């Protein structure tokens, strides 16, 4: 029989107090400041901003500290905070052509206007642990060279001139917003891109990887990858004109994909697009590959049944806060549910035992 | 509450500049330039968010990228000039300082503020941007052709 109970308040309080103590760790070790996390764990901060879907490095750093470095927990904190903010409006679409690039590379063209700019990358490092970082090291100084501050053109622009790549047609349809309306199928590209840019990095990476291994292969080249800052401009109703309301770091990836052509389109290259808050290169490339895979229908390609082509599967499982919420809830008390299951299994066993008893009697 | 005294392009430039200033910087420069005048709030500082949009393929249809934090406020000086601020982040004191500068740019203090607040902010911003661009330029690849090995 099930008896309703309550309790655990003191246990919960004490658990949270212990959590706070464990979070601080050994008090003989200096405490981390928010500024230290923001400056020295910047890529973790970027991931929390991207998947928390709120650009604010200090808040993301605070969330990482509070979550003891559990990034999904930190993303959860940011998502929860975000819902408390009044929304002033939506910005004009950012112009990534105007980006002040820290990094800008192309895997398709060696010599391109603006050049191959590597930026502060892990690429070409030997992935050997650097024990100098374990000691109090000197502050390294990056070399500098005379720079041109003019914006660098997008690589897809060159292919566009020859008509060899599909054009991204200008369009000013107001985009749907999954933070205001629940995500529903079919999802147009704008909705898919919103879901993907805040999607879990690991999930997006695995989906993208599956397309490379043959599950919905579309042979992607990184036409261009750029990381840098762009101004954000918004119309201010009380002023009657637009002003810049800030500046954000973005990572943009444009893939160039093979396409045989269709009934309406000549053979040409097609495009996948990734745009993510912060320096988040792995995520932006993954997003572009998954975006391209999900475009099979509008491009008139075959659905080969690959997971990355299934918008419903991808979009409904890409959000790590939804996923972790549902997954982790099963550890919370399910005493009543379980009690009924227990009753059921006992009854089934009684029935089986009774019928076995009858069989035995019949056999004898 | 649409303003009638807009010097639009100029005003757009200074408001944009202040929106991107590092935390605490506008207040420091403003207080070094002059004594703050009295004002009344039209809209007390308020922290909120703006949904940032991008475009598919950078030129196609817009989509929602995610939000950013923004602080805004509006005030009136005793002479009736109105100042607005929309700045990145969550600093109410910075929004107040930015709105004061915005309002004061329509007064006799404009020239002082231009040289003591706006120009330093702009120089600092340009310096930050140039330094990053120069570090990026140093990582630009110079390709050279290897000697071909067949003869």
Average pLDDT reading of chain A? 91
Given as residue ranges, the uncertain stretches of chain A (5+ residues, pLDDT < 50) are none
| Average pLDDT number of chain B | 91
Number of structurally distinct domains of chain B: 1
In which range does the helix fraction of chain B lie? 40-55%
Task: Tell me what you see in this structure.
The complex is a heterodimer of chains A (364) and B (151). Chain A is of the alpha+beta class. Chain A folds into three domains: 11-82, no CATH class; 96-120 and 152-166 and 179-324, no CATH class; 333-364. Chain A has twelve helices and six strands. Chain A has helices at 9-24, 34-40, 42-52, 57-66, 71-82, 155-161, 189-197, 201-212, 281-294, 311-317, 320-329, 335-363; strands spanning 54-55, 87-90, 100-105, 220-236, 241-257, 270-277. In chain A, strands 3-4-5-6 form a four-stranded antiparallel beta sheet. The model of chain A has no long low-confidence stretch (mean pLDDT 91). Chain B is α+β, with helices and mostly antiparallel strands and 151 residues long. Chain B has one domain. In chain B, 41% of the residues lie in helices and 26% in strands. Chain B is built from four helices and three strands, in the order H-H-E-E-E-H-H. Chain B has helices spanning 8-19, 25-33, 92-104, 110-137, and strands spanning 39-55, 62-77, 82-88. Chain B has a three-stranded antiparallel beta sheet. In chain B, strand 1 (39-55) and strand 2 form a beta hairpin. In chain B, helix 2 (25-33) crosses helix 3 and helix 2 packs antiparallel against helix 4 (110-137). The radius of gyration of chain B is 21 Å and the shape is elongated. The model of chain B has no long low-confidence stretch (mean pLDDT 91). Chains A and B meet through strand 1, strand 2, strand 3, helix 7 and strand 4 of A and helix 1, strand 1, strand 2, strand 3 and helix 4 of B.
